[in-house]
Amino acid sequence: MMNLLTGQLAREFLLVSRVRTDVLNPLIFLLLAVTLFALALEGRPQTLQAHAPAVLWTLVLLTNMLALDGLFRRDFDDGVLEQLFLQADAPYVAILSKLIVHWLVTGFAMVVCVPLLGLGLYLPGDVLPVLMLALLLGTPTITCLGAIGAALTVGLRRGGAILALLVLPLLIPVLIFGVSAVNRVVEGDPPLAELYWLAALSLASITAAPFAVSAALRISLEQ
Amino acid sequence: MLFTGLSLRLAAGECVELRGPNGSGKTTLIRTLAGLLPMQGQVLASSVIAYLGHTNGLAGPLSPLENLRWYLGIGGHAADDKSIHAALRRLEIGALFRQPVERLSAGQQRRVALARLLIGAAPVWLLDEPYTALDANGIACVDGLLAEHVAAGGCALVASHSPVAVATRMVELNGERVPA
Amino acid sequence: MGALKTLWHRLGSPRWFYGMLAPWQFGFGLAAMVLLSIGTIWGLVFAPADYQQGDSFRIIYIHVPTVILAQSAYMMLGAAGFVLLVWRMKMADVAMVAIVPFGMAITALGLFTGAVWGRPTWGTWWVWTDARLISTLVLLFLYFGLYALRQAITNAEAAGRACAVLAIVGLINIPIIKYSVEWWATLHQGSTFSVTKVSMPMQMWAPLLANVLGMYCLFGWVVTRRMRTEVLRRERDTAWVTELIGSRS
Fold first, then answer.
1. Measured between CB atoms, does B38 come within 8 Å of chain C?
2. Other CB atoms closer than 10 Å to residue A223's CB: what's the count?
3. Phi-psi sector, C185: left (phi>0), alpha (psi -120 to 50), beta
4. Which residue from A138, B25, B54, B140 has the highest number of Cβ atoms inside 10 Å of its Cβ?
């Protein structure tokens, strides 16, 4: 089983390294969207600082929707998923590795980039560690629940819009706890409850998602 | 219900050609037998089936070698580069093992997909239009593979619009298909 | 055990199902008409006015049943989805097809009546810090998602099972969403409103109870009716449907 997992992880990394634009495009979109917000708020430091947690978390959710749309699409179109489900005794191992690598190149990439964007929005430096921690604990849930939506919509020609419609309502708790964690620190309180909740949600969704995604992909293959 | 009262026997050493007009359900039948579509009844264990569909089942950015390694890996087989190279040579694309699949021609890509049949050692082959995109030489190559496979005691079900030279039997699907 | 087994086999037969639902449809329809008439007339005309809100409180006789049903309907969707995935019972899919549009409409109605009630009571149509408003809005989005997914997938069987997965995921998430929204609303206190929790006199809650039960019956009537129509639509090429339609016309 361990062999299977490492083999799968290696393949996914190889794929990601061959098509780097898939990784970079969402991050550039995030940067662009933050720029739009900063301009729309007329660049006023106080306004930007006050809205930064909300803006950043909302954009993290939207950017993930953009990235998730392509999560299974190539493998579905090429018939790789068919072979996977026919040959593998444990397709969820392959799916889990796909999720892990996808999270590393989008979710974890955001953990690193978003605090920098936060600085650009005049967030005080002592808030940034908590923002990073909240993103680290919150983004796995986004990837996992989003993957279920991506698996359900992979057979549709225009899956992107419907993917967001299916998944974003389910991610409201992540948004609420994520924004609240940052705001707590700004007000000078420890954001423990929020971080515990984000961690609990992530653990639950990491456990359940590979099975739900695998069931959803099987259904999509029937079309 | 797409098929009712359909009975098909595939014995060892048989290569059955599946024919029928467009929309008669050849692809559906093959996908059902492979276990991709739900059906009432028993589906064969995945380890004994090799399936080749309309799509090649190859990741475009990866090379033939990487693709075939992955295929062996998910099937629980040990990575065996020697047999992969042998299979690629058998399909006359031995020199292309490093190229990303998406840069190969359609016919070359089909050959990579066919190489899967050789490395998996599955006794049952379910092939859906295996000749797609192949030149005369490639078609002869596939027929050679089929003949060898059958001679070695395997069996194959081949859906095709062009005749399968080495077929031992032909089954015609002509029932009307009710759109779901 | 034997009886259970026969029932199980019968549930797989659309024809038996179609016939079996007929008396239920009639019963639900009749009960809904009686209960809703009693509850509505009693509530709107004879029940005493609220000492604080006056006559405007009477909208609860519509609002409360719709909101309760909006949630119950989604739970039934989740249950039907579970049955469909685990036992592959086609009638569960028929039930989902029947429930989604009704659930969507009733949730929208719940939000609308809530807004209409909010205007005279709290002076505003909508507040973003009220947990109940937000979770009902999210529920509406969940219904939208199920509806859109069903429309988007052309293969009917795959569409049913995809919606089943989504309904189950949604059902698991509803308590989490509700909790997070409530927790968040308490952070922004001052703007949360609580329904006046004074003990209602019997004259006030009896018609409400009648309307809640009546709304469940209305739901039963609409759903059984839609299920029977859906069975006919799916079986339209079979002999028994042709015969049935022939004998009617």
1. yes
2. 15
3. alpha
4. A138
pLDDT in tens, C156-203: 889 999 999 999 999 999 999 988 888 888 776 544 444 545 456 777
Nearest chain C CA: its distance from B180 CA (Å): 7
Task: Give the amino acid at A114.
Answer: V
By CB atoms closer than 10 A (0-12, 13-18, 19+), residue A165 is buried
Q: Which two tokens stand for residue B47?
A: 């380890």
**Is A86–B38 a contact, with Cβ atoms under 8 angstroms apart?**
no
Residue range B31-66, pLDDT digits in tens: 888 878 776 666 665 567 889 989 999 999 999 999
The Cβ-side half-sphere exposure at C245, using a 13 Å CA radius, reads 10
Cβ neighbours of residue A55 under 8 Å, at least 6 residues apart?
A: A34, A37, A121
**What value of ipTM does the predicted structure carry?**
0.91
- The reply to whether residue C157 touches residue B178, judged by beta carbons under 8 angstroms, is no
Q: Is C156's CB within 8 Å of B38's CB? A: no
3-state helix, strand, coil in chain A (%, to 5): 85, 0, 15
In one-letter notation, the amino acid at residue A186 is V
Is any Cβ of chain A less than 8 angstroms from the Cβ of B76?
yes
Strands (E), chain B: 15-19, 49-52, 124-128, 155-159, 169-172
Six token digits for residue B164: 């399968």
A78 contact residues in B (CB cutoff 8 A): 55-60
